[in-house]
Amino acid sequence: MIKTALLLARKDLTIILGRSAGLCQALLLGLLLIFLFSLSLQAGERLSPHAASTMFWLASVFCQVLIFQMLYALEEQNSAKTGLQLLPCPVQAVWLGKFFAGLALLCVAQILFIPAVFVFLSQNLGPAYPYALLGIIITDLGICTCGSLLGALCVGQSGRESLLSIILFPLLIPLLLSAISLTSAGLLDISGYTAETAQIFQWLGIALAFDMLFCSASLILFPYLYHGE
């Protein structure tokens, strides 16, 4: 199943990177959100780390929605969904393949978003940045897990562009709260074991629990959602 998922991810990435227009749209949307928010700052003013972290994750989630819309629209355009359903392997391989492709594209987007946050929102890296990096990795896994699952639910629907956002954002609230707190900790001057450090470990636990819960749910529910049962 893993081999099939990697082949599907490679196929999707080849098509999307070959077209490039949809990916550029997702990247520009995230960068535009960060830039427009920076216009509210006065010259020399520094945005709070918590607000800067919030803008980073808003840009990431909006970008992620566009990414999974593109990924699941590939088979819809060419009526290739039936072919994927007939693959001689568990249908969860499709979910895993979309997950890998979406995760790769989201990481590419965040490579651009992170410098934009430092430049446009006047942020400085703090001593606790390893926690922020760990939080980004865990959160990316969670939002791509949900995106790959719910993308299957919205495919083929006339209003899938809005339906995916409406369903996805409420589910991601606990994970986003954890991600914002963890990322902002990487922008603060935190050293040693303090009350802030204890909260960091609590948020890490919440994020990990979210990932495990939705990964298990995706493996169970994806065949029913993808087949439309």
Structure explained in plain terms:
With 229 residues, this protein is mainly alpha-helical. 80% of the residues lie in helices and 0% in strands. It has helices at 2-19, 21-38, 49-77, 81-85, 92-120, 129-154, 160-185, 195-227. α2 packs parallel to α5 (92-120), α3 runs antiparallel to α7 (160-185) and α5 crosses α6. The chain starts with a helix and ends with a helix. The mean pLDDT is 81.
CA radius of gyration is 18 Å
| Measured distance between first and last alpha carbons | 22 Å
Shape: globular
| Assembly type | single chain
Specify the structural class: mainly alpha
Task: Report the portion of residues in β strands.
Answer: under 5%
Largest sheet: none
Low-confidence runs (pLDDT<50, min 5 residues)?
none
The ordered string of helix (H) and strand (E) elements is HHHHHHHH
Question: Mean pLDDT, as a whole number?
Answer: 81
Helix content: over 70%
Total beta strand runs: 0
Give the number of helices: 8
Quick summary of this structure?
The protein has eight helices and no strands.
Record keyword descriptors for this entry.
single chain; 229 residues; 80% helix; globular
SSE layout:
Blueprint (H helix, E strand, L loop, with lengths): L1 H18 L1 H18 L10 H29 L3 H5 L6 H29 L8 H26 L5 H26 L9 H33 L2
Helix pairs in contact: 1-5, 2-3, 2-5, 3-5, 3-6, 3-7, 5-6, 6-7, 6-8, 7-8
